[in-house]
C-alpha cells in the first residue's frame, strides 16, 4: 500500500465463518496497528466498511493511508462477535507501506490549471 492513496482491502472469510455471517447478527471490528500503536479502528458501522456474503471490504481514504508511516509494516486483524457473545478472529495479516513525496491530500477540480503555464 502507498501512503496518500485510496486503497481497498478485501478480506475473504474462511468457509466455516461464511454461514455465521449469513445467519447471525454480527458486530465486526477491524484493527490496523503499526509499531504496536493503533492507527485505525473500524467497525461494521463505519461508512467505509462493506460486509458482503463471503468478504469484508475496507475502503481507505487518502487521509487514512497518510496516517501510516512509510517503511514500517502494518498489521491488520478482523474480529467479529454474534448476539450469543461467540467471538472469532482472522489471522493477523501484515503489509508494507510505501511513501509519497508530498503528504497533502490531493483533489480533482475541473478548474485545475498547470503551474507550468505562464
- Topology as H/E string? EHEEEEHEEE
Derived structural class = mainly beta
CATH class categorisation: Mainly Beta
The tally of beta strands, per DSSP, is 8
Q: Characterize the biggest β-sheet.
A: 5 strands, antiparallel
Residue stretches low in confidence (pLDDT < 50, at least 5 long) are none
Q: Which CATH-level-2 architecture?
A: Sandwich
First-residue to last-residue Cα separation = 36 Å
Overall tally of structural domains: 1
* Rg (C-alpha, Å): 18 Å
| Average pLDDT level | 87
What is the CATH third-level topology name? Immunoglobulin-like
Residue fraction in strands: 35-45%
Subunit arrangement of the protein: single chain
Helix content: 10-25%
Mass-distribution shape: globular
Amino acid at each position: 500500500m502507498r501512503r496518500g492513496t485510496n486503497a481497498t482491502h478485501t478480506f475473504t472469510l474462511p468457509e466455516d465463518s461464511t454461514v455465521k455471517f449469513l445467519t447471525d447478527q454480527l458486530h465486526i471490528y477491524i484493527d490496523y496497528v503499526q509499531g504496536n500503536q493503533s492507527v485505525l479502528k473500524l467497525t461494521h458501522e463505519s461508512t467505509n466498511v462493506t460486509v458482503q456474503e463471503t468478504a469484508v471490504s475496507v475502503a481507505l481514504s487518502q487521509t487514512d493511508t497518510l496516517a501510516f508511516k512509510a517503511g514500517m509494516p502494518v498489521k491488520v486483524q478482523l474480529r467479529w462477535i454474534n448476539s450469543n457473545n461467540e467471538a472469532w478472529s482472522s489471522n493477523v495479516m501484515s503489509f508494507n507501506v510505501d511513501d509519497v513525496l508530498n503528504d497533502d491530500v490531493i483533489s480533482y477540480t475541473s478548474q485545475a490549471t498547470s503551474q507550468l503555464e505562464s
